[in-house]
Amino acid sequence: MGTILVREETLEPTFLPPKLPHRTAELALLTRRYREALSKGVPFHLLLTGGVGSGKTALAKRLATDLERLGRIGPAPVKAVYINAWRRASDRTIVLDLLRAVDVSLPDRGYGLPEMLDVFEQGIRRHPRHHLVILDEASALVRQETKLVYLLSRSGEVGLGSISLLLIATEDLLPYLDPASRSSFGVTHRMALAPYDRAALTDILEARAEVALAPASYTDETLEQIARIAAPNGDARFAIELLSSAAHVAEEAGHRAISAEDIRAAKGSIYSTVTETQLEGLSVNALTVLLALTRTLKGKGSSVPSQKLRSAHSALLEEFEEDPISRTTFWRTLKELERDGLVTLDTGPSGASSSVAMDELPASYLGTLIEERLGHGRARKA
Ligand SMILES: Nc1ncnc2c1ncn2[C@@H]1O[C@H](COP(=O)(O)OP(=O)(O)O)[C@@H](O)[C@H]1O
Ligand SMILES: [Mg+2]
Asked: 24-193: CATH homologous superfamily?
């Protein structure tokens, strides 16, 4: 057990959190829809879409566990079968997974799909259950004209027992389905998950940090900084991965808590979008503003009030014996840096106060890069 990471396994992608903040309404709605249908002995099919890290897999697995826990709903209890179709993009390999789920095994050779489905049906009949088949990452499968969506969503008609199908993909799959299957996924049979916003990511990170990390090892500011970095994609997976690597960076450095600089280092190691080429394209104004920012940020703080940055920048220009720049030029420079993705500007509620952050790289490292550039620039000028 580390000093910061007290339950590291809860930051792994395979960990299914007991609660899903910001997906409780969706979970309640889905649970209700499935219960209503299943209690009448009718299957329920659903197409769940959303971007990477929007919580599709977590939501589906939570739903599956919750439905299984309810015991008998209508004629039979629910058994969920989760299949990630990403690497098994053929009907046969998926049916082999289905067979395994009902405890029958067949060699992977010499059987056609109809025979395999017969065996599946026998397996189901031995233990009558309502099967919730979750086909995650189903895009590739559906795009290559699978028959399984048709067969599994018409299980009653085709004599396959009682099956509900939950299809998951990042894109809308309806255009790729045959007309008969499409009719199984009408408006009340579709759910699209919106990307998480920054506040939602902060809540998700907070819930995860509570179980994974030592209480004194992070603050609200830690979580807000990470949420800010992950917000453009609304991706909870990236946010949690960043929390995990920042915790590792901090632990390896012997810190007792995660600092803003640890987070920037973790971000830089996952993937840094700042390159020396990008710095080459910057004006001297932009470079000095960025340098003032790295110096103010160094070690502490995830962001700086813009007024404070402006004073630090003026002091820096004095130190470099450069002419001061106007307030307007300062702001225009900040906006340029924001457009280039080098800084994030946050406007306070009044619009008057605002703060500036740089999350791409450790501030100390970026500072060194800029000092080298400015050094060269000034040498050339002299
Ligand atoms: N609402 C949430 N609350 C807590 N953790 C979440 C939530 N949404 C996603 N996660 C976590 O974020 C990561 C990515 O979620 P996942 O369901 O795999 O996304 P998707 O399948 O849409 O790509 C997982 O570790 C998951 O546990
Ligand atoms: Mg997923």
From this structure: P-loop containing nucleotide triphosphate hydrolases (3.40.50.300)
